[in-house]
Specification:
Number of domains: 2
Number of strands: 11
CATH superfamily of the largest domain: Aldolase class I
Shape: globular
C-alpha cells in the first residue's frame, strides 16, 4: 500500500495516529509505528527536557518513524521546536498557527513538517511556506473543528495543493481509508479510534464511555475554550450551554493561575507565552483566560476520567467504535478491510 505519504515518511501503511494532547503517549505512538503506521507524540505543556525524554522513550520502544506535535503560541513554543529538531525527529506536526518559523528551522536538518489546517487558505499558505505535508480535519472530528465537513474539505484541499494531503474526521476503518484515497488524500489520521485503544493515555473511564457513545452524543460548543470544540455531552457541557456563555472572570483567573502552576514555568515566561498565543490566535486576554480554564476541564475529563464534570473531546465517529483493542490491531484491521474493499472495486472497474 504505497502513496507519497508512505514513501516520504518511510512507513508501510498511510495510517497516522492523530495528535491528541495527553492521550498521545509513548506506548501508543510506538504501537502504531511498530504496526506499520505513524504514531504522533504529544508535546503540549511539556518542557524541552520532558519532550526530549519522551522522544527517547519512543525510540526505546520502536525503531520505526514517528512524529511529534507542536502547537503554535504555547509557552516555550520555540524551545520545544528547537528540542524536536535537535533530536532529529522524523516529522513535526504543527497546529494552530503559521508553521513558517519551524519550517525555516527544520530546513536542512532532515526533519519534515506536516501542517495541520482547517481551511483551504491555510493549506495554500503552508505549502507556499515550504511544508512537506498537509493534514486537514473536517467538521466530524473531535476537538477544535473546521466548519466544513471532511467530504467537502478533503477533495477541495487536495485539488488546490501539490504536496501530499492526509485527511482526518469521521474515519476509523478500512472504508474510511479507501474513501480518503478516492477523495484525493494520500493518507488518513485517526484520533478517536486510536484514543480508544489499550495503549492510549485516555482515562479508562472514558475509553469505556466512548465505546458505548452514539454519533448523536457529541456536539460542537464554543463554551469550553472560546472556539468550536467537539465533545461528548454531559452535565458540565449542558450547564455551559444553558448559561449561553463561557466561564466567569473568576473561573478564568483561577484557570490561568492553575495553568501556570501546571506548566511549572516563571511568570515572565508565562506572560511572554500568553502574548504569543494572543498574536497567533488573534484572541483577547479574556479569551485566553477562557482557554486556560477550558484546558483544566479537559484535563479533568481526559486524564482524571471525570465523565460528569470533565470535558470529553471526541469525534462523531465514536458511534462506530465498540471495542478497546491494541493499537496495532487497529492498523491491521484497517489494512485488511481496505484490501478486501479494493479487490471487488478493481474488478468492477475493469
Amino acid at each position: 500500500m504505497k502513496t507519497r505519504i508512505t514513501e516520504r515518511l518511510g512507513i508501510q501503511y498511510p495510517i497516522i495516529q492523530a495528535p491528541m494532547g495527553p492521550i498521545s503517549i509513548p506506548p501508543l505512538v510506538a504501537a502504531v509505528s511498530n504496526a506499520g503506521g505513524l504514531g504522533i507524540l504529544n508535546a503540549g505543556h511539556f518542557t524541552p527536557d520532558e519532550i526530549r525524554a519522551d522522544i527517547r522513550v519512543v525510540r526505546e520502544l520502536t525503531d520505526r518513524p514517528f512524529g511529534v506535535n507542536l502547537t503554535a503560541g504555547t509557552p516555550g513554543y520555540e524551545r520545544l521546536g528547537e528540542a524536536m529538531i535537535e533530536e532529529k525527529v522524523p516529522l513535526i506536526v504543527h497546529g494552530r498557527g503559521n508553521p513558517r518559523w519551524v519550517i525555516g528551522q527544520a530546513k536542512g536538518e532532515g526533519v519534515m513538517i506536516m501542517a495541520q489546517i482547517g481551511a483551504v487558505k491555510h493549506a495554500l499558505r503552508a505549502e507556499q511556506d515550504g511544508a512537506d505535508f498537509i493534514i486537514v480535519a473536517g467538521h466530524e472530528a473531535g476537538g477544535h473543528v473546521s466548519p466544513v465537513s471532511t467530504m467537502v474539505l478533503a477533495p477541495l484541499v487536495a485539488s488546490k495543493v501539490k504536496i501530499p494531503v492526509v485527511v482526518a474526521g469521521g474515519l476509523c476503518d478500512g472504508r474510511g481509508l479507501v474513501a480518503a484515497l478516492a477523495l484525493g488524500a494520500e493518507g488518513i489520521a485517526l484520533g478517536t479510534r486510536f484514543a480508544v485503544t489499550q495503549e492510549s493515555g485516555l482515562h479508562e473511564n472514558l475509553k469505556r464511555r466512548y465505546s458505548v457513545a452514539s454519533e448523536a452524543d457529541t456536539l460542537v460548543t464554543p463554551r469550553v475554550t472560546g472556539a468550536g470544540l467537539r465533545v461528548i455531552r454531559n452535565s458540565l457541557i449542558d450547564g455551559l450551554e444553558r448559561k449561553g456563555r463561557g466561564h466567569s472572570w473568576g473561573e478564568r483567573i483561577r484557570g490561568t493561575l492553575e495553568t501556570r502552576k501546571m506548566l511549572g514555568i516563571s511568570w515572565w515566561r508565562f506572560i511572554i507565552g500568553g502574548w504569543k498565543m494572543k498574536r497567533e490566535y488573534e484572541a483577547s486576554f479574556s479569551e485566553l483566560g477562557q482557554l486556560a480554564v477550558g484546558a483544566q476541564m479537559i484535563n479533568r475529563g481526559l486524564i482524571e476520567g471525570d465523565e460528569d464534570q470533565g470535558v470529553m473531546i471526541c469525534g462523531q465517529v465514536c458511534g462506530r467504535i465498540e471495542d478497546i483493542p491494541p493499537a496495532g490491531e487497529v492498523v491491521r484491521r484497517i489494512v485488511a478491510e481496505a484490501t478486501a474493499i479494493m479487490a471487488p472495486l478493481e474488478r468492477a472497474l475493469g
